[in-house]
TrEMBL record:
<dbReference type="InterPro" id="IPR027417">
    <property type="entry name" value="P-loop_NTPase"/>
</dbReference>
<dbReference type="Pfam" id="PF17289">
    <property type="entry name" value="Terminase_6C"/>
</dbReference>
<dbReference type="InterPro" id="IPR006517">
    <property type="entry name" value="Phage_terminase_lsu-like_C"/>
</dbReference>
<protein>
    <submittedName>
        <fullName>Terminase-like family protein</fullName>
    </submittedName>
</protein>
<dbReference type="Pfam" id="PF03237">
    <property type="entry name" value="Terminase_6N"/>
</dbReference>
<keyword id="KW-0614">Plasmid</keyword>
<feature type="domain" description="Terminase large subunit gp17-like C-terminal">
    <location>
        <begin position="286"/>
        <end position="434"/>
    </location>
</feature>
<keyword id="KW-1188">Viral release from host cell</keyword>
<dbReference type="InterPro" id="IPR035421">
    <property type="entry name" value="Terminase_6C"/>
</dbReference>
Length: 449
């Protein structure tokens, strides 16, 4: 068996921590998953020992390069025997490791009666507080190993985790406090309130009947993962190329950053050109639809049809925008007339609203556009997540705008996203960008093509 050991720095600190609960990470690329799997090997030779590592859903466990794939790289060197059908590892009849999900809050009750010496959460912010607390009650042991919990995480300011680890985070900047990383605190829960102290004795003095748990948070970033940076030096460049919101979270480890106006799009990102290259451009027109006509008493969403074209150097041009507030019939006429003006070479994306009515309406539009290359699209993520790929390319200078009267409306809405009154242009840009780059993004979970 090759010698398996953690890297110096935060990974070593995480694997040598003694607290009941240790949370590791706070940024991407710090070797979090690898460390969590290494922790599972500590007691693999103890009869009756078991560890369960949770992801929010089973797809995340099985994803390429995810928990299961990584465990196959590591556990085979520790005489582990895999059972892929049940996502389990057996270590010569002694310890066991299982990967599982808690997709819904009620799924936690599937573990009623379980005794799990080591409970692990891979990406803790994906789980609810109720799930976490319930699994604390399943964290029991009769094999001689003291029960404990280990978790990895990336920043999410709206998650309960942000408040849970607030002592380790600078309230103003949102970044971890270096001098507190790896330090231990204590807590207990009383009447659904989490009560903290600097020592077990401090809490017992407050309430002699309490049973405090110790907690530590170990901060890390990609710069702590020397092995990754040596094997894949381009990974750091990928993190630096992210839009500012994700870059602050995943590269810098910022727990305070929120989506705000100007964070995703700024007009300075876009070069306005008077003409686009001739010949060989791939073109799409994407429709984000609304169906309410504007009156004096309302300001409904817009129907927006945005045309994007990409040249041989993968530079994208926004070449036309249709933006209307019309009734369903007016929207249908606009889509049909625009298709005839664009011509059959321009691929058309129609966003499909949820529910059976949305399916029926999308089917009607496809039939109406016979003779054109039409694709119906279902949005499967929130607006901010869908906008990230286009935002990243815009900041890199890879999206240019054809000079036209609609430019000001385009820039104004993008700069105000996600806080503006309307986001229909952003939705159309996100959908058109993803459709234009279908081969690169159809597996990203952002849209279903």
């Amino acid at each position: 068996m090759p010698k398996i050991k953690p890297q110096k720095g935060p990974q070593y600190q995480f694997l040598n921590a003694s607290a009941d609960i240790v949370i590791y990470g706070g940024a991407a690329g710090g070797g979090k998953t690898w460390a969590l799997l290494m922790e599972c090997l500590r007691h693999r030779n103890v009869p009756g020992f078991s560890a369960v590592i949770f992801r929010r859903n089973s797809t995340q466990v099985r994803n390429p390069g995810g928990l299961w794939d990584t465990s196959c790289e590591l556990f085979v060197h520790a005489d582990g025997t895999p059972k892929q059908s049940t996502l389990e590892w057996d270590f010569q009849g002694n310890g066991k490791v299982k990967f599982a999900h808690l997709e819904h809050d009620k799924t936690r009750f599937d573990w009623q009666g379980s005794q799990i010496p080591l409970v692990g959460f891979d990406e803790l912010t994906h789980f609810s507080w109720q799930q976490f607390v319930y699994m604390l009650s399943r964290n029991r042991s009769t094999c001689g190993v003291k029960p404990y919990i280990r978790a990895t995480t990336n920043p999410d300011t709206d998650s309960w985790v942000r408040q849970f680890i607030s002592w380790w985070i600078d309230e103003k900047s949102g970044y971890p406090i270096p001098s507190r990383s790896g330090k231990t605190r204590w807590f207990f829960i009383q009447n659904d309130q989490t009560i903290w102290g600097s020592s077990r004795e401090e809490l017992v003095e407050k309430d002699p009947s309490c049973l405090p748990k110790s907690v530590s948070f170990v901060a890390s970033t990609v710069h702590d993962n020397k092995i990754l940076l040596e094997k894949d030096p381009g990974y750091l460049a990928n993190l630096k190329a992210l839009p500012r919101f994700e870059r602050e979270q995943l590269l810098m480890g910022n727990w305070n950053v929120r989506p705000t106006a100007g964070m995703f799009f700024q007009r300075s990102f876009f070069e306005v050109v008077k003409a686009i290259p001739k010949g060989g451009l791939k073109a799409v027109r994407y429709w984000d639809r609304a169906a309410t006509k504007k009156t004096e008493s309302n300001d409904p969403d817009y129907t927006v049809g945005l045309r994007l074209e990409k040249d041989k150097n993968n530079i994208i041009y926004v070449t036309d925008m249709v933006r209307i507030q019309q009734s369903p019939l007016g929207v249908q006429s606009a889509i049909k007339n625009t298709a005839s003006q664009d011509g059959a070479s321009v691929r058309i994306g129609i966003e499909q609203d949820p529910g059976q009515a949305g399916v029926s309406e999308a089917d009607y539009l496809v039939r109406m556009l016979q003779g054109y290359n039409v694709k119906t699209v279902k949005a499967t993520q929130d607006k901010v997540t869908r906008a990230l790929p286009a935002s990243s390319q815009a900041e890199a200078g890879n999206i240019k705008i054809l000079q036209a009267p609609w430019n000001e409306d385009f820039f104004r809405e993008l700069e105000n996203f996600p806080e503006g009154a309307h986001d229909d242009i952003v939705d159309a840009l996100s959908g058109a960008f993803l459709l234009l780059n279908e081969s690169a993004y159809d597996l990203a979970g952002l849209i279903t093509l």
